[in-house]
Amino acid sequence: MKRDEPRFLVDGMLGSLARWLRMLGYDVEYKSEWEDERLLKEAARSGRVLLTGDLELYRRASRKALRAYLVKVGDRDEALHKLSERFRLRLTLNPKLSRCPLCNTPLKPVGKREAEGKVPPSVLRRKRRFWICRNPGCGKIYWKGSHWDKIKDTLRKVSDRRG
Ligand SMILES: [Zn+2]
Questions:
Q1: Cα of 73 from ligand 1 centre, angstroms
Q2: Paired sense of beta strands 68-70 and 49-52, if any
Q3: What does the pLDDT read at residue 140?
Q4: Which residues surround ligand 1, an ion (CB under 5 A)?
């Protein structure tokens, strides 16, 4: 992650957006149970940009001079497009930069040996490179499968949007 990249704090309604931003490599704090007060406090403490779908919360954040951005709920692709323009986000998937969508921890590349027993045998046979979440409490493992292709497709469509 580059030092000048925006870091985000995402409200409970925008979990899918939080996971996508993490996959793109952005540092995203997301706790579905956090209420407005907690989000405002955390935004003030951390300097993260608060992404919210709640107009009232957005207004409260703005009144406190916090960095906040109002997201239209229910259209993740639209939100990604708007965010990419507003914050100059890259919309390309690079596992060297990706963070674990579940826990926001950077990933580490591993080979077949480390992946053994953690992925289905058919995947182990076909793939040579894997990425594991560096958080030992999570340890989720990823590989470039059909899901990966779908994500790339979606990102391409989002990039091609205009306006
Ligand atoms: Zn993780």
A1: 25
A2: parallel
A3: 96
A4: 100, 102-103, 105, 133, 135, 138, 140
Are 68 and 117 contained in the same domain?
Answer: no
Q: Compute the distance from residue 101 Cα to the ligand 1 centre, in Å.
A: 7
- Parent domain of 149: 107-160
Mean pLDDT of 138-161: 93
Specify whether 116 is located in the same domain as 73: no
CA of 24 to the centre of ligand 1 (A): 14
Any domain includes 2: no
The count of domains in the chain is 2
How far, in Å, is the centroid of ligand 1 from the Cα of 145? 18
The pTM (predicted TM-score) of the whole model is 0.94
Q: Report CA(121)–ligand 1 centroid distance (Å).
A: 21
Q: Are residues 30 and 75 in the same domain?
A: yes
Q: 159 alpha carbon to ligand 1 midpoint, in Å?
A: 27
Per-residue pLDDT tens digits for 44-97: 999 999 999 999 999 999 999 999 999 998 899 999 999 999 999 999 999 999
Same domain? 31 vs 61: yes
- Mean pLDDT (the chain) is 94
In terms of domains, do 53 and 18 share one? Answer: yes
Q: Calculate how far, in angstroms, residue 106's C-alpha sits from the geometric centre of ligand 1.
A: 8
